[in-house]
Specification:
This protein is α/β, with parallel strands linked by helices. The chain is 43% helix and 20% strand. It has 2 domains: 246 residues, Glycogen Phosphorylase B (Rossmann fold), CATH 3.40.50; 208 residues, 3-Layer(aba) Sandwich (Rossmann fold). Helix 8 crosses helix 13, helix 10 packs across helix 14 and helix 12 crosses helix 13.
């Protein structure tokens, strides 16, 4: 991994250090896309992972820095002032950048006060991290919360390599420039030696925006700005198939999975796993399932949808509305179609461990990964890895990064309710030969484009940039 130097990871939040305790099995840890992708990076490599602890203080000064060790690495966690954290995280990151980058212009909230806090917190991150850095460290900054961080570190005197990876989409120039500070953030990105994105289309949007907004000339895959060279690359993130293969062999004995197995015995199981977020298209998925039951009555009593929705950003008004809308649709579907012991939609609103999720993957004949817009969406890859050799069918939105390489899934447009319902029917009734052929190619893709391969590729290019 890398070139033997210490890797310094920087992200908005840190995983709880107890979740990395050597005696705690990986299967018992809560699921996080970023942590799932980065855990194989740490391995036996010396590392430092810096980020916000999630704790806040009542004053205006940055709070304490907490240090904890795990394996060959170290967590360094920073507390933030309460009001500043709210403006930086809830207001700007979640209500401005998140809808902007996911191409939801009608949901963007623009406030100069929250943008100022966003830049102040990035400065706090840089100033708190800087004393822990060594001259030969390799820095890898993750996601949209920390776009200005590299520039502040340069101001403080850091001269080593810094890479940045955007885990979410990058929108078209017309959408991105809704933001009054669009040019500032573009110039922040150009401070990095390497900027990685999930897909070719995301990289195209970023390079086109740089050309249009900053009038820069692209030289190969790079831009020169203020004497620095910034390379743009595509690095589709993967998962750890070996870990899922081990879990598939163990199977989960959790009460949640066992209870559903009894409840859905003899039925085809259709599974959705998401954070409850308006980008994930859960209401549209439920409406699609309702359409399926309405227009194909022969499936009633024979197919059950299990929708796992992990609570997310519950204090943000847009997310509270999403939960209310989801509850209303689930109630209507179950009210219309339930009969006897059969409940069409089992809605599970909580987080599950990796082992529990693998148990759900093993029971699901079909997995629906149908976001309206997404960066990669690792659920698609986890489903394939988590079922081991037991073939299933993946129904995948064309608007998530996984669709660029997982072409043997049934690719759908989640806005097309009838078309998606037809794809689910095809998935349920697919002949064995077609299902096994598609599945074999999906397994090959997941085993090739792993989290380790993703990190190796990015860090190699960063070292050579």
């Amino acid at each position: 991994m890398g070139n033997g130097k210490r890797i310094v990871l920087v992200s908005n939040r840190l995983p709880p250090s107890e979740d990395f305790a050597a005696e705690k099995d990986v299967a018992e840890r809560p699921v996080s896309g970023l942590v799932s992708a980065l855990r194989p990076v740490l391995g036996n490599t010396e590392s430092l992972w810096f980020g916000w602890s999630g704790r806040t203080s009542s004053g205006s000064e940055a709070g304490a820095v907490t240090i904890s060790d795990f394996g060959t690495g170290r967590f360094v966690a920073l507390d933030l002032p309460r009001r500043e954290a709210s403006l930086y995280y809830t207001a700007f990151s979640n209500r401005t950048l998140w809808p902007l980058l996911h191409n939801f212009p009608d949901r963007i909230v623009v406030r100069s006060e929250s943008y100022s806090a966003y830049r102040r917190v990035n400065r706090r991150f840089a100033e708190s991290l800087f004393p822990y850095l060594r001259p030969d460290d390799t820095l890898w900054v993750h996601d949209f919360h920390l776009i200005p961080l590299g520039g502040v570190l340069r101001e403080l005197g850091w001269t080593g390599k810094i890479g940045f990876f955007l885990h979410v989409p990058f929108p078209s120039v017309d959408t991105f420039t809704i933001l009054p500070w669009a040019q500032d953030l573009l110039e922040d990105l150009l401070v990095y030696d390497l900027v990685g994105l999930q897909t070719r289309s995301h990289a195209h949007n970023l390079t086109h925006t740089l050309i249009e907004e900053l009038r820069l000339a692209q030289i190969g895959d790079a831009f020169i700005h203020k004497g620095r060279r910034c390379q743009i690359g595509v690095y589709p993130v993967g998962t750890d198939p070996d870990a899922f293969r081990r879990q598939a062999a163990i199977r989960s004995g959790s009460r949640a999975v066992s209870g559903l197995k009894r409840l859905l015995q003899g039925q085809k199981v259709v599974l959705g796993v998401d954070r409850l977020d308006y980008t994930k298209g859960v209401p549209q998925r439920l409406l699609t399932f309702e359409h399926l039951l309405e227009h194909r009555p022969s499936l009633r009593g024979k197919v059950g949808l299990v929708q796992i929705s992990v609570p997310s950003r519950e204090r943000v008004p847009e997310y509270a509305r999403e939960k209310r809308q989801t509850d209303e649709i689930v109630g209507r579907i179950n009210g219309r179609f339930s009969r006897g012991q059969w409940i069409p939609v089992n809605f599970l609103y909580r987080a599950f461990t990796q082992q529990e999720l693998t148990g759900f993957y093993n029971e699901a004949d079909v997995c629906l990964v149908t976001p309206i817009r997404d960066g990669m969406n690792l659920v698609a890859k986890e489903y394939v890895a988590g079922r081991g050799d037991r073939s299933g069918v993946l129904v995948l939105s064309k608007f998530c990064g996984a669709a660029e390489t997982m072409t043997e899934a049934l690719i759908i447009n989640p806005h097309d309710i009838k078309g998606t319902a037809d794809a689910i029917h095809h998935a349920i009734t697919m002949p064995d030969e077609e299902r096994e052929r598609r599945w074999g190619r999906l397994v090959s893709e997941v085993e090739t484009n792993t989290a380790t391969a993703w990190a190796d590729s990015f860090l190699r290019d960063l070292a050579e940039s």
